[in-house]
Write a structure and sequence with these properties.
Elements: H1 4-31, E1 35-42, E2 45-52, E3 55-62, E4 79-83, H2 98-111, E5 117-124, H3 134-139, E6 143-148, H4 157-171, E7 175-179, H5 182-195, E8 199-203, E9 205-209, E10 212-219, E11 224-231, E12 237-241, E13 263-267, E14 300-304, H6 309-322, E15 326-329, H7 331-335, E16 356-360, H8 366-369, E17 377-382, H9 389-392, E18 395-398, H10 401-414
Parallel strand pairs: 4-5, 4-7, 5-6, 6-13, 7-12, 8-12, 14-15, 14-16, 16-17, 17-18
Antiparallel strand pairs: 1-2, 2-3, 9-10, 10-11
Helix pairs in contact: 4-5, 6-10
Bound molecules: flavin-adenine dinucleotide.
Flavin-adenine dinucleotide binds next to α7, α8, β17 and α10.
């Protein structure tokens, strides 16, 4: 690992180079039809010399540079940072949507006119081991920032907001992104409010150009898409990407020779001392049983509708437990009181993005499918071959779900 002194020296050089490239691109774009331009960095301002048809004209360009959130000139405009989540209890693995998130950002970086690096950020405590980060090199990520602090041993809103606010003030990246997971949706808007930075939640796609953040979002419960532009005025943009939209990256370099060298830099962020005044204190961590997992965070969902009847939901819960899946339902099932309303999927319920969705006794009305159409794999069990749900299904089983599920449970128990 590099020493802190070396890193800060290298950062200064990078900042200068990037800022110079930025200024030159702006000035050249405006004046190049008139003659030669040279620019020289003088601390926070620039001396620009123009050769207008043989006549030298000197000009001082006072801070035409983008400013960081604190108004300091000369910041690094070349970093796109992604805050990765890792398994909560064991710190063993990165969040399963990290690959998709990184791929999206690599695409954004490739589209930039000035070189931009995608940098991963992990927040950990010093005592704990890093998760397996081989995915980063395999995808071509060159830089990992590790924010280490004893208060980061477990997720807490305040410590994440403090640590990332500190990081943004140090590095001022052009874009900071995370997954719109329950944690990401918790800390990112607070960070945006604290630093007064532009923030776009729940994006399906992102781009950054012409000093603006372009985000694709779904509206009207997934029935329409809209692209919005947020003016940045040189500030760091914050965005949360809906997990699972991008899917697992298709090409991962497997051989170690072609894997990029990952430069790891550790920081000790300054977190506010709250001396027992924290708003949230952690007492213990208890993993919910799979069927209690929040639907929007679930990887696997077994959903039931009118066709399975009230008793059918007991069969669904047993099957879901064996598959470590969450239980979902149609509005008919929740309106009839078979399942609580929080489990309803669809236009007036939750929008879900699981890897696997098994629809049991569900016809596939548009109001239901608008909430689950982004599931990666859909299996439908229904005796009516004309049921619209089959049009969405990767695998359809013509039959009675109340017979199929107990059989499937038995097979799972035996295996
Ligand atoms: C404004 C509005 C908002 C709405 N919002 C939502 C929403 O958010 N979510 C939602 O889900 N709905 C919503 N609805 C309701 C929606 O239009 C449908 O009525 C509802 O989704 C149908 O639920 P279902 O598939 O359980 O029932 P049904 O449409 O009655 O389908 C039952 C299916 O079960 C099959 N079946 C029968 N027996 C079996 C068996 N033994 N095994 C397997 N399959 C069997 C049948 O063949 C049938 O296809 C909304 C409606 C309106 C008007």
């Amino acid at each position: 690992m590099e020493s802190h002194a070396h890193i800060s020296e290298r950062m200064k050089h990078e900042q200068l180079e990037v800022s110079l490239a930025f200024v030159m691109s702006k000035v050249e774009a405006y004046l190049s039809p008139y003659g030669m331009i040279t620019a020289k960095a003088m601390r926070d301002w620039w001396t620009v010399t123009l050769d207008l048809k043989g006549r030298n004209v000197g000009a001082t360009l006072a801070v035409a540079l983008p400013c960081d959130p604190c108004g300091r000139p000369g910041r690094t405009m070349s970093e796109i940072c992604v805050v990765l989540e890792h398994t909560y209890a064991t710190l063993a693995t990165l969040h399963e949507h990290s690959g998709g998130l990184l791929s999206e950002l690599l695409d954004i970086a490739r589209r930039q006119s000035t070189p931009a690096a995608v940098c991963a950020i992990l927040l950990v405590s010093q005592q704990e081991k890093l998760p397996d980060i081989s995915l980063l090199s395999a995808l071509g990520i060159h830089r990992l920032y590790v924010l280490e602090h004893p208060h980061l041993a477990h997720y807490s809103t305040e410590s994440y907001v403090d640590a990332l606010a500190w990081f943004i003030q140090q590095r001022a990246p052009m874009l900071l992104v995370t997954s719109a997971t329950p944690n990401g949706r918790d800390w990112m808007p607070r960070l945006a409010a604290q630093l007064r930075l532009p923030f776009v939640p729940n994006c399906l796609g992102l781009d950054i150009r012409d000093d603006g953040l372009f985000a694709l979002r779904s509206i009207y419960e997934g029935r329409a898409y809209v692209q919005i532009r947020t003016a940045l005025h040189g500030r760091t943009a914050l965005a949360a990407l809906v997990p699972g939209v991008r899917g697992t990256p298709a090409i991962i370099q497997q051989d170690s020779a072609s894997m990029s060298a990952l430069e790891i830099t550790s920081f000790l962020p300054e977190l506010q001392q709250r001396n027992g005044q924290e708003r949230i204190r952690q007492i213990s961590i208890q993993a919910p049983s799979p069927e209690e997992v929040e639907l929007d965070a679930a990887e696997r969902i077994i959903a039931g509708g009118r066709g399975v009847g009230q008793e059918g939901f007991t069969t669904i819960a047993t099957f879901a437990h064996l598959l470590s899946a969450a239980v979902g339902a149609t509005r008919v099932a929740t309106d009839l009181g078979w399942v609580e309303h929080a489990r309803q999927i669809g236009a007036t319920g939750k929008i879900v993005h699981p890897k696997l969705y098994i629809a049991c006794g569900i016809s596939g009305a548009a109001q239901h499918t608008s909430g689950m159409s982004e599931a990666q794999t859909v299996i439908a069990i229904n005796p009516d071959r004309s049921a619209p749900i089959f049009a969405l299904a990767d695998l359809g089983l013509l039959g009675d779900a109340n017979q199929v599920l107990p059989l499937a449970s038995k097979l799972l128990e035996q295996s």
